[in-house]
Amino acid sequence: xxxxxxxxxxxxxxxxxxxxxxxxxxxxxxxxxxxxxxxxxxxxxxxxxxxxxxxxxxxxxxxxxxxxxxxxxxxxxxxxxxxxxxxxxxxxxxxxxxxxxxxxxxxxxxxxxxxxxxxxxxxxxxxxxxxxxxxxxxxxxxxxxxxxxxxxxxxxxxxxxxxxxxxxxxxxxxxxxxxxxxxxxxxxxxxxxxxxxxxxxxxxxxxxxxxxxxxxxxxxxxxxxxxxxxxxxxxxxxxxxxxxxxxxxxxxxxxxxxxxxxxxxxxxxxxxxxxxxxxxxxxxxxxxxxxxxxxxxxxxxxxxxxxxxxxxxxxxxxxxxxxxxxxxxxxxxxxxxxxxxxxxxxxxxxxxxxxxxxxxxxxxxxxxxxxxxxxxxxxxxxxxxxxxxxxxxxxxxxxxxxxxxxxxxxxxxxxxxxxxxxxx
Length: 424
Known about the structure:
This protein is mostly helical. The chain has two domains: 1-182, MFS general substrate transporter like domains (Growth Hormone, Chain: A, Up-down Bundle), CATH 1.20.1250.20; 184-415, MFS general substrate transporter like domains (Growth Hormone, Chain: A). It is built from 18 helices and no strands. It has helices at residues 3-24, 26-33, 37-40, 42-61, 67-87, 91-117, 125-154, 156-177, 189-196, 199-219, 222-230, 237-261, 263-284, 288-304, 306-316, 322-348, 356-378, 397-414. Helix 1 packs across helix 7 (125-154).
């Protein structure tokens, strides 16, 4: 892996650790600041709110700043937010600190994805972006359990302090290894906002909210499903979540090459397989070994669709992809909130702990419908799936048609051959 991509992966590792470690430290945090555990749970919401607000706002503010400098500024803000979390004297200040720590999350992933895609040849852009996302998946395997264990042994403040140190390592790595990437001649917040008005970008963001909502409808209640239905002890759930993280890592690794080869078909297949995994888990959750295998597959499919959605948004935003890429992570957090809410409704209605799986499958299929609608609208249109480098002219109509033909040819190699009369 090139050192510049490794530096971006370190940033993603720190973000993943600080985002999810809080969930495992809620009892300790509640005791430390004198609130109940449910009240402490609002800290997770504070971080998510920071992500939703920060992604478009900070990307807009930094629209004219060269990408490397913007990455350094955002990573510095990430460090400040986690240091503030570590030293917060009370719940109110800790809430504000978690909001601050969440602000650069989406912008870092958005700018990082654009930078990663331009470090390599265009035909390998998705693989580069997926390597950056590996930092997030490794955080689920190593960073979150380690941060949780550190917080339980030495105190939750040490956990946030450790994440701040990771941020400093990321800051140094970015400064040393990421090359300067100038902004294009048309850079600016108005240019980015015009790109956000693209219909395909709007459909892509809606696909992320709805499709990933299906994933989060189940992930939010995975631990109580395991303890109440599968019969796994509380002490073993960390290992199961690590298995889920392994699945995420495999899904991310596989997604890059497939997305480079055929973007939309990869997204379609990923959403179908996610829905299938959720339906399967509804039936396997009662048996330990089948449940564990399904969880690994579920993690793989949840991360598998991340890369094609990210690349689709960047491609359709043309030469102003940064805000679209960052807003994708706002969409993920909206999916998290909406999916968890819908999954909770089914449990509260008495449908059982396994019921969020069916809600999740329905949302994944609805996301597939949105993605397919976008593909139908795009068919024959002048919308390239090539991400132009700064200052490079947008692809021509002939280039668009050629890219579209390549995508269709690649799709044919991924999907089973149709019987006579089935082709549209």
